[in-house]
Amino acid sequence: MLKGKKILLGITASIAAYKAIFLVRLLVKEGAEVKVTLTPAAKEFVSPLVLSVLSKNDVLIDITSNNSWNNHVALGRWADIMLVAPLSCNTLAKMATGLCDNLLMAVYLSATCPVIVAPAMDEDMWHHPSTKKNIETLKEYGNEIIDVNSGELASGLHGEGRMAEPENIVSFLAEKFFRGSQLKYKKAFVTAGPTYEPLDPVRFIGNHSSGKMGFALAETLYEKGADVTIISGPVYQTKKYDGIKIIQVATAKEMYDTCLNLHYETDIEVMAAAVADYKPVEISAQKIKKDKANFTLSLEKTNDILAELGRKKTKQFLAGFALETNNEQDYAKQKLYTKNADMIVLNSLQDANSGFGYDTNKVSVFCADKTEHALEFATKKEIAEQIVELIINKINA
Ligand code: CTP
Q1: Is 207 a residue of the active site?
Q2: Are residues 261 and 333 in the same domain?
C-alpha cells in the first residue's frame, strides 16, 4: 500500500531510535520512498550511515552541510507524510511551542503534509502534565499520535512509554493515509483457518490450515477500501490493521451461523477456511477412556457453508476455494456450479511449497463467466492481491 509514497522520517534522541532502522527497512520494503532527517543529538543513538544505506538517500541533520543549505521547505513539500519516530520529550516540547533550532524542527514547522508522531520516553516523563499538555497541543495542530506501548523501558522500569513497534507504525500509516478506494462502501467477509469439531472435552477433529491465505485476502480487501470481517477458526495469525474485525469461531456450525448472520449485509464473501466436512455425531461429556481394543467414531456431515450462501445469494460476489489431489480442474469447475459460486480458487496439492502452512502458494482461478486464470507461484500476499484484483474486475464488469 505504500508503493511510491514519499515518507519523511524524523528521528530524535531516544533509545528507541535503534528501532528506526527496522522502520526504514520496512517502509522501503513496502515500496515507500524514504528520506531521513535526524536531530543532532539523535546521531548518538543511531548511525546516519546505516540509515542512509537503507533509505538509499542522504541523511540530513544540519540546516547547512558542505557549505550548502538543506532546503527544509522543499523537504516538507516533497513528503506525502512526515513521521517523527521516535519522538523524544524534548522534540515534543519544541513541536508544541514552535521552537526552531534544528533542521528537523524547521522541516516540521514548514511541512504542509500530515504529520504523525510516535513518542518514546520513560513512564514518568510520559505521565508528566507538561507532556500530556504538549501531546494535546500537537493533536490540536492536527498531528496524529501513535500511542506508546507498555513494557520494559530503557530505565529498567516497566510501564507506558515504549515506542510503538515498527510494523505497527507502518500498518498505522497504511491504514490511516493510504487505503485504496476501489472497494469503498463494500462489506466483505473472509473465512479463514480450520474448524475444530469436538469429540470430548479434550479432543477434536481438525486440520492443518494456518489461516495465512484467508488473512492475506482480508488484508488486501481492506487495503482496497472494503469494510472487512474475518470469520476465523483457531489460528495463530494476527490482523495487520486495527480496522479489520475478527470473529473467532471453533466449529463448522459456529462458522455457518456467523456467515449466515452476516450474509445479507455483505457484498463480497471469500470462503478460504478449511471447514470440516464431517463432525462426530455425539460429543462425549467426559473424556473418552481407552478401555476398548477398537474404537469406532460415528460422523455426520456438517453444513456446506459455501453451498448455503450460494443458494441464498442475492447481490453477493461469492468466492470459494477447492483443494484437490486429482481431476483438479474438473472438480474445481464443478464446484462453481454445485455451489453457485462466482469464483473458485484451486489449490493443488501437487505443487511444492503451496497450500497449508506455507507463506507461498500456486493457484488457478475459475470464474462463473467461464474465464480461467493460472496465477504464478508467489507469496500468499501477492496471490491475494491478484485474486482481489480479479474480484474487483468481475464486480465492475
Ligand atoms: N466449505 C464450506 N463448508 C463446508 C465445507 C467446505 O463452506 N462444510 C467451503 C470451503 O471453505 C471452500 C469450498 O467449500 O471454499 C471447497 O471446499 P472443499 O473441501 O475443497 O470441497 P467440498 O465442497 O467440501 O467437497 P469435497 O471435499 O468432496 O471436494
Answers
A1: yes
A2: yes
